[in-house]
Amino acid sequence: MDILQSFLLGLIQGLTEFLPISSSGHLALGRFFLGADTEVGITFEVVVHFGTLCSIVIYYKKELADLFKAGFSFLGAPSQKKDDPQVKIILFILVSMIPAFIVGFTLKDYVEDIFMTPVLVCGMLIVTGFILFMTKFAKDPEGQVTLGKSFLIGIAQAFAMIPGISRSGSTISTALYLGIKREDAANFSFLMVIPVIAGAMLLQIKEMLEIGVSDAQVMSLVVGFLTSFISGYYALKYLIIILKKKGFHYFAYYCWLVGAVGLAYFLI
């Protein structure tokens, strides 16, 4: 993988990890068109996911610090801290992880096989478009995250393991359908993905270590990491702004366009 490929794929990962247009689907299509080597792709995918993980940790550093503080306080005095709002958020995040980890550990190999089917990726992008477009009809939600709602959002996240189905699009849309406030929907969606991205990285690290990293790949990996980190940070920042302005459904048009053009390209 050369420097240009690394830059483009890192940019795709950074932008699409948080924008509701499916990072997995775009990376699959990107590897297809750029002809990136599959083995290098495994290592590269771990590195660029680490880049986006770093970007979300930096963006939410204050909120994460508060959650860690609340978590340790709860361990020290559970009876006194059980009603702490931060402790409840930790519980909601843990509950939301359950569907994704079940699907990840049982269907991982099957889902990876689907990644190699660009026609399916394009079809699922069209599905993502409909998921996003329907948020246009959501009223001004004012509700909060609850235990039951967090589990339903977690189910939406599990479905997003299908390439072409956007994780952020599915989780934020589901939160809006459930009546959760727009900013809270975005914040919870991005906080809950941190352990999922970390878990996905751990599943791939063993395979990456078996392949190894050559000296020739180091620069490409550095470029991919930096590109995904920087682009991911700003994609996250501006998506929340767009969501507050009720423009979330506009991403549907992009998904429909890419999906339709892709289907035409691969099927005609």
Outline the fold blueprint.
Layout: H1 3-18, H2 23-34, H3 38-59, H4 61-76, H5 78-81, H6 85-114, H7 118-133, H8 147-159, H9 167-177, H10 182-211, H11 215-244, H12 251-267
What is the first-to-last residue Cα distance? 29 Å
- Globally, the shape reads globular
Category by helix and strand content: mainly alpha
For the largest beta-sheet, the strand count, sense and barrel status come to: none
Task: Report on the architecture of this protein.
The chain is mainly alpha-helical. It has one domain. Helices cover 81% and strands 0% of the residues. It is built from twelve helices and no strands. It has helices spanning 3-18, 23-34, 38-59, 61-76, 78-81, 85-114, 118-133, 147-159, 167-177, 182-211, 215-244, 251-267. The longest helix is centred in the middle third of the chain and has 30 residues, at 85-114. The radius of gyration is 18 Å and the shape is globular. The two termini are 29 Å apart. The mean pLDDT is 87.
Outline:
The protein is built from 12 helices and no strands. The protein has 268 residues and is mainly α.
Labels describing this entry:
0% strand; 268 residues; 12 helices; mainly alpha
